């Protein structure tokens, strides 16, 4: 059976990098492990958290520790019109996923309120 999509492909554009936290020096002598997770989704935006970890001893997986963490905000755009496009919702399941989702949503709402206040001050 052939399935046809009724929506156009989306473009994900990097809107900003919210924060980059360097937690320890990164050594060129040991491998890095990079893990990315979607931690929050709005109507047309996605927050992706990247975590870079590095073993403190050669060949040791047990002692991986976080060296760097960063949050990237992407905005979905319609590939033809370039306008904002809705993205699929996110359903956090674990306690950590729920915590990250709630923290990021609170940060998003705070920034949104600040932007609203700044726009009012410009009028």
UniProtKB/TrEMBL annotation:
Organism whose genome encodes this protein: Acacia crassicarpa
Stored PANTHER family: ACYL-COA THIOESTERASE (PTHR12655), ACYL-COENZYME A THIOESTERASE 9, MITOCHONDRIAL (PTHR12655:SF0)
InterPro entries per record: HOTDOG_ACOT, HotDog_dom_sf
Residue ranges of every copy of the HotDog ACOT-type domain listed in the record: 1-80
Keywords: Hydrolase, Repeat, Transit peptide
GO molecular-function term, one example from the UniProt record: fatty acyl-CoA hydrolase activity
GO aspect biological process, one term: acyl-CoA metabolic process
Protein name according to UniProt: HotDog ACOT-type domain-containing protein
Keyword Protein biosynthesis: no
Family to which this protein belongs: Belongs to the acyl coenzyme A hydrolase family.
